[in-house]
UniProtKB/TrEMBL annotation:
Gene3D superfamilies, A to Z: Hypothetical protein apc22750. Chain B (3.30.110.70)
InterPro entries attached to this UniProt entry: UPF0145_dom_sf, UPF0145_YbjQ-like
Family, as annotated: Belongs to the UPF0145 family.
The protein's name: UPF0145 protein SCATT_26400
């Protein structure tokens, strides 16, 4: 399986630029809107847990769990972008992911960053 099989390939065009850097070369920040985030919590699928348990004994990638985590991160990112768009931003700077266990029943994924309005430098 390649990266595209997990949904990690090129993302659809969006009007909100998301970067992990603090700035974007050739652009200036005209306005800082503030923190935005996208949050989702996913429960574990019983079948993938059993498969993961067996696979962990033998070693190797847990493909079912990898796929689920990528889908979860993509959903968190989509929610981050929607919140930024709703607040009038055209970019999110310093985007990060935070992943934690949620009460031993699932995984919480939060995408967060700083919503801004960028303009090309003259």
């Amino acid at each position: 399986m390649g990266i595209d099989d997990y949904g990690g390939g090129p993302q659809p065009h969006t009007d909100v630029l998301v970067v992990t850097t603090n700035d974007v070369p050739g652009h200036t920040v005209e306005k800082v809107i503030g923190e935005v985030f996208g949050l989702t919590v996913r429960s574990r699928h019983l079948g993938s847990q059993i498969g993961a348990g067996l696979k962990s004994m033998l070693g190797g990638e847990l493909k079912g769990l990898t796929k689920t985590l990528v889908e979860t991160r993509n959903q968190a990112m989509a929610r981050l972008i929607e919140q930024a768009r709703t607040r009038g931003a055209n970019a999110v700077l310093a985007m990060r992911f935070d992943v934690t266990e949620a009460a031993d029943i699932g995984t919480e994924v939060c995408a967060y960053g700083t919503a801004v309005v960028l303009a090309p430098q003259a």
